[in-house]
Amino acid sequence: MAPMLVTFKVKGGGTIKFIFKVGDDLRKDQMVMCIIDLVDNLYKRLGLDLCLTPYQILAVAPDEGLVGFVENSYTLSQVRDQAKKAQDALYSFLQRHNTKGPILDMAIESFVRSCAGYCVITYVLGAGDRHLDNLLITTKGRLFHIDFGYLFGADPKPLAPSIRVVSEMFEVMEASRQRNAFATNVCWAFNRLRSESRHILNLVGLMKDMLPAEDSNCLAYITKKLDLKLSDAQADRLILERIEASANAILAEIFEYFHKVATARR
């Protein structure tokens, strides 16, 4: 059964939209959204809003559930398809939807911050299957990820990068002179997550029994990724090296091409 968009009327006026999915186990997604919501609030409490997008997920059975619909969002695959030149696809998208200077600046800042936040979160959780239909962006510049069926290092593709970044992201940062801000935000986010690791580890510990048996190593995996014995400076180098390696991963673009071909034939 294909996913179905369902609109609910809210008491007092307004509506809320969900995607009803059958055939997908959403328990991992539900746990990840709880983690992202926790991390979002943690970062804000520590003084920086990284413009994360925690949306609601309710797994009502092992193979069906409801996924919150994020309005005015597009997959990065769609953004690429709409662009005249692939290399500036994201920057053109942001310019098209944010025509005034100050509004465009705000959208770019949201993009850079959210990019940093999700690089760290998906790295720590070992999120796999990060093709461009699973990376989305809103018209206000907030990047976010969906579909967390593969976690803790699992991935349907061999030799997948540990963090999914594409050249178009860096084009936005270079054009707006935000590359250093991105690196600063990444390092801050990673080290704050490390220093406050008990929160995420406690949450995962409470929820791990809902996961399938193959994910029983989740706590050990996250602890290893956080690498708590490193100093902040060492952790900075580690996460930036991971991003640099992922940015230069040719295989990721090859797999993206095959994913696009396979999707077009369905």
TrEMBL record:
<dbReference type="GO" id="GO:0000045">
    <property type="term" value="P:autophagosome assembly"/>
</dbReference>
<dbReference type="InterPro" id="IPR015433">
    <property type="entry name" value="PI3/4_kinase"/>
</dbReference>
<dbReference type="GO" id="GO:0006897">
    <property type="term" value="P:endocytosis"/>
</dbReference>
<feature type="domain" description="PI3K/PI4K catalytic">
    <location>
        <begin position="1"/>
        <end position="251"/>
    </location>
</feature>
<dbReference type="GO" id="GO:0005768">
    <property type="term" value="C:endosome"/>
</dbReference>
<dbReference type="GO" id="GO:0005777">
    <property type="term" value="C:peroxisome"/>
</dbReference>
<keyword id="KW-0808">Transferase</keyword>
<dbReference type="Pfam" id="PF00454">
    <property type="entry name" value="PI3_PI4_kinase"/>
</dbReference>
<dbReference type="InterPro" id="IPR000403">
    <property type="entry name" value="PI3/4_kinase_cat_dom"/>
</dbReference>
<dbReference type="GO" id="GO:0034272">
    <property type="term" value="C:phosphatidylinositol 3-kinase complex, class III, type II"/>
</dbReference>
<dbReference type="GO" id="GO:0034271">
    <property type="term" value="C:phosphatidylinositol 3-kinase complex, class III, type I"/>
</dbReference>
<protein>
    <recommendedName>
        <fullName>PI3K/PI4K catalytic domain-containing protein</fullName>
    </recommendedName>
</protein>
<keyword id="KW-0418">Kinase</keyword>
<dbReference type="GO" id="GO:0016303">
    <property type="term" value="F:1-phosphatidylinositol-3-kinase activity"/>
</dbReference>
<dbReference type="InterPro" id="IPR036940">
    <property type="entry name" value="PI3/4_kinase_cat_sf"/>
</dbReference>
<dbReference type="InterPro" id="IPR011009">
    <property type="entry name" value="Kinase-like_dom_sf"/>
</dbReference>
<dbReference type="GO" id="GO:0048015">
    <property type="term" value="P:phosphatidylinositol-mediated signaling"/>
</dbReference>
<dbReference type="GO" id="GO:0000407">
    <property type="term" value="C:phagophore assembly site"/>
</dbReference>
